Amino acid sequence: MLILAFLGPFLFCFSVVLFILVLQLLGLYADAFGGKGLGGGLFFRMVGLAMGRMLLEAMPLAVMAAAIMSFGRLGENRELTAIQASGISMLKFMRGLVGFGVLLTLVSIWLSFEVVPNASQKFYRLLSDIRRTKADLAIKPGIFYTDIDGFAIRVTEQHPETGTLYGVMLYDKRKMPEITVVVADSARMLPQSREDILRMNLYHGSRHQEFESNPSPARK
Description:
Elements lengths: L1 H27 L1 H4 L6 H37 L2 H7 L4 H4 L1 H38 L2 H4 L12 E4 L2 E2 L6 E8 L5 E13 L8 E13 L9
Antiparallel strand pairs: 1-3, 2-3, 3-4, 4-5
């Protein structure tokens, strides 16, 4: 009886928390999906890879909320008083629910050690591939684009139809502390067969080299 009284609130709370976590995932990585023409299958694959971590986050909160709701309902209906009056101890009454909690604990341990690490690695690898896809759409005016290792790109304007970039500043930080800065009036993206390569033509620009100096320690 106690397990049946617990399962309803548990499944309800678990579904609500899982839905909130999916919405949070959408909010965190909306920039990776927006405007790239990616299909729904790829999105569901991302959600599936992140589902193991979501289950671990949703399970404790759902158990706590379900326990409060189920025992509160039993206490409100005086069923706990009737059970104690009939001579059944609370430990014996909660034996099935404790077994259910142990089962959830074993599932959580299995997810933590077997599922979540591999799924998280595949999730971030896929996310990196998505962010590199159609980088010309990912570059937003006034915001530094840093998804390419060692580079930072900033533009002031982007033509909505031709995709031409204006006011381009490109920072090459691969040879730190030496920084190469390329400033150009405009630029055009060139198509590539590989998604991990970004190629562009810069027009009417100049190239500068700077050195990042480390601040000297303060004297005592």
